[in-house]
TrEMBL record:
Classification of source organism: Bacteria, Pseudomonadati, Lentisphaerota, Lentisphaeria, Lentisphaerales
Name used for this protein in its record: Hit-like protein
GO biological process: nucleotide metabolic process
Residue span, HIT domain: 5-112
Gene3D superfamilies: HIT-like
Domain of life: Bacteria
Entries under InterPro entries matching the protein: Histidine_triad_HIT (IPR001310), HIT-like (IPR011146), HIT-like_sf (IPR036265)
A Pfam family recorded for this sequence: HIT
A molecular-function term among this protein's GO annotations: catalytic activity
Length: 138
């Protein structure tokens, strides 16, 4: 896609610090990282949502994310990592090209996901949701 920054990076029309690339995927250092080593991993072909990827591509993307995360841990500079996917603007998706974020972590980095834990919904609402999801998984 002509105006997509992740497509441009995958096609080398825009500079990025690429850490991995093959015919299907591209991984590069985030230009404005949460932590040093924050990596964006994308399928090279433009796709707005990971939910639209073929199963095989989706699986390979996550296997590659794991390999990158393991490599990050081998640097010995980090204690852990987060792998995050932001789907939709309300969830923080800032590019229409779907991507996984691999974020190296150390105990003192001060980065917090800011999850607000809430009381669970009513039993009736939980059962309704469970049934809905069960019926939609195919
Ligand atoms: Zn794109």
């Amino acid at each position: 896609m002509d105006n997509c920054i992740y497509c441009k990076i995958s096609e080398h029309r825009e500079h990025a610090d690429i850490v991995y690339q093959d015919d299907t995927f591209c991984a590069f250092l985030h230009p404005t990282p949460i932590n040093h080593g924050h990596i964006i991993l994308t399928a090279s072909a433009h796709c707005t949502s990971l939910t639209l990827l073929e199963d095989e591509t989706y699986s390979k993307l996550h296997c590659l994310a794991r390999k990158i995360a393991v490599a990050i841990l081998k640097t010995k500079n980090y204690d852990g990592f987060n792998i995050q996917y932001n789907h939709g603007e309300c969830a923080g998706q800032d590019s229409l090209h779907a991507a996984l974020h691999i974020i190296p972590r150390v105990g003192t980095d001060g980065f917090h996901l800011n999850w607000r834990m809430q009381k669970p919904a009513s039993e009736e609402n939980r059962k309704e949701l469970i049934e809905f999801i069960k019926n939609k998984i195919s």
